[in-house]
């Protein structure tokens, strides 16, 4: 799967998350289909423009294999606290193949056939949409942020603007990012991760995880049916 194709799937996922978690009213979205699965797309021009710009910026980092994780954090407006995180981890198994493909239009060896990849992505989208019925509702008005983590923990290369214009990425709040489990001997509250779906393309592996935050549940266990 090429990085432009992956960027398009990421855009679908972002729109769908905003709809099913009701960050914006459901009537501001239109229903689409991708790989035979009902998904959603915002009808608001500013939301569409923002997501397109973010995905384009992420796509530039994907092309050089620098993206480690993309997180959509849904936050409560009144408190600013994270309610839940949708985490997409990326693993580049064939970065050299991707670079070779950009240099010459050769097929990516080891990548699945188009039909097999479509089935993988169908399963990914089915599990994503199904999360809405499994997660607790968010209380109050919510907003969202999109966090990009690079493999070297340095700022995205797209932030180095030649014309002095404002950089597209700003440092994320520590409270919004996925925190590693504490190694403290004393028991501490934590926010367990639920592994939702993995797609292994042979070139770029994708893993979707979700995390309900303590500020939302008041619990230190994720109560989701994993069957």
From TrEMBL:
Q: What is the lineage of its organism?
A: Eukaryota, Fungi, Dikarya, Basidiomycota, Agaricomycotina
Q: Fetch the Gene3D superfamilies from UniProt.
A: HORMA domain (3.30.900.10)
Question: SUPFAM superfamilies, from UniProt?
Answer: The spindle assembly checkpoint protein mad2
Query: What cellular component terms from Gene Ontology apply here?
Result: zeta DNA polymerase complex
InterPro entries reported for this sequence: HORMA_dom (IPR003511), HORMA_dom_sf (IPR036570), Mad2-like (IPR045091)
* Protein name per UniProt: DNA-binding protein
| Organism name | Kockovaella imperatae
The HORMA domain extends over 1-210
Keywords carried by this UniProt record = DNA-binding
Family of the protein in this entry = Belongs to the MAD2 family.
Q: GO molecular function terms here? A: DNA binding
Q: Does the keyword Iron-sulfur apply?
A: no
